[in-house]
Amino acid sequence: MTSSSDRSPAVVDPKGTYEVRTYGCQMNVHDSERLSGLLEDAGYVRAPEGSDGDADVVVFNTCAVRENADNKLYGNLGRLAPMKTKRPGMQIAVGGCLAQKDRDTIVKKAPWVDVVFGTHNIGKLPVLLERARVQEEAQIEIAESLEAFPSTLPTRRESAYAAWVSISVGCNNTCTFCIVPALRGKEEDRRPGDILAEVEALVAEGVSEITLLGQNVNAYGSDLGDREAFSKLLRACGQIEGLERVRFTSPHPKDFTDDVIAAMAETPNVMPQLHMPLQSGSDPVLRAMRRSYRQERFLGIIEKVRAAIPHAAISTDIIVGFPGETEEDFQQTMHVVREARFASAFTFQYSKRPGTPAAEMDGQIPKEVVQDRYMRLVALQEEISWEENKKQVGRTLEVMVAEGEGRKDGATARLSGRAPDNRLVHFTKPDEEVRPGDVVTVEITYAAPHHLLAEGPTTAVRRTRAGDAWEKRNAAPAQPQGVMLGIPTLGVPAPLPAATSGCAID
């Protein structure tokens, strides 16, 4: 295992600065941490925040699941073209799902791009950049199968106290709205021992929260021949001393079995939180989506989770306006939302995704109809989210202090963090020093639809090894003459699947 922070620090002469721009789901975010680690291993230094393309190497890690994903990419590439003309040594690389899909098209449309690489060979980026520089021509290399599991590559993690741990890549499902399996390939599982070794190494570095990551995370074990491998993995994480919080994303209802629910309920550091993508509450629409569960099965899972973990916060993904969706189908989705009482939902208006079966289906819904249904769904979910959050008022919660979660914290003299169930909590800044990664105990006094407030005094502050790790990283001196390999920037992985992508919508 070779996370960059495992190795002995070594100062190297910098080749220049780099910037990585990430679009899409958590898998892309995690891949970008690896790309940053690879570039730093090769001697590049991260460009300052806000450099906006003013770097020697600019990497686009792309998503292909949105209808306008390519327009967004080419627009951004177009804005860099004049900058590259003024800086002959500048290099531009495009990777990720859109690169895997479009391949040669990218260089034809944007001939100033130097490197195009796919989802299976992110480890080749430094070599391809050097080859493009020496040969003075674009390098296009798209592997058809995984060359190295992402978590075996160097990394520049975005947080000192929370980390992604990829347990599988690829997906064996054939959802008609999703192109990810075609771009990421069939599911490949990591060996349990490798995963646990990475988790233990992260904890030794000060990480106290990990999120197990996979395109279809609870299908883990299908490649290993063990249907209970995921629940066993959760229980094994519970045995790792110093690991305080375990989360996972994104599961699929068809693979969500009773042994997983039991493992969640019986493993103290597995958090009472579940993100369970619904997509639609209508059985005919689910059938057209090729989602291998139906409304009754989905609600049955929710009921079992709530019985085993009464305080669990359950969130979801929903697509409105899928081809052929009738008003009756939409009302079935509204029914499930009322019954499930999600803490939050990522709601999407269906848009054609090139390369998916759904894009060619009859019965495409007019935009105005989709918009109307979307607004009604959002209004209902906002009402439910607020009602569910109001139930938290008066509860005393342990909140892990986060960084960058509260945009108004400076003006309000508050700090922000996440409760065990992943709800966002803003709390009054205590008199004593509190660092990201530390844990505070607060009483909830007010609820809004998307956050909770603790306006009274903090009743306890627990300084943690994770806070120590954050403090150590934050105190690290700048490296103007080189780069100290493995010194990451600050931040925390997004706690839920990104709302801008379908990659994690399984």
From TrEMBL:
Where the record annotates domain Radical SAM core, the positions are 157-388
Which species does the entry assign this protein to? Streptomyces racemochromogenes
Q: Which residues form the MTTase N-terminal domain?
A: 16-134
Q: Where in the cell is it found?
A: Cytoplasm
- InterPro entries linked: Elp3/MiaA/NifB-like_rSAM, Methylthiotransferase, Methylthiotransferase_CS, Methylthiotransferase_N, Methylthiotransferase_N_sf, MiaB_methiolase, rSAM, rSAM_horseshoe
Q: Which GO terms describe its molecular function?
A: tRNA-2-methylthio-N(6)-dimethylallyladenosine(37) synthase activity
Instruction: From the Swiss-Prot or TrEMBL record, give the protein name.
Output: tRNA-2-methylthio-N(6)-dimethylallyladenosine synthase
Q: What is its EC number?
A: 2.8.4.3
TRAM domain ranges (all copies): 390-458
Pfam families referenced in this protein's UniProt entry, alphabetically: Radical_SAM (PF04055), UPF0004 (PF00919)
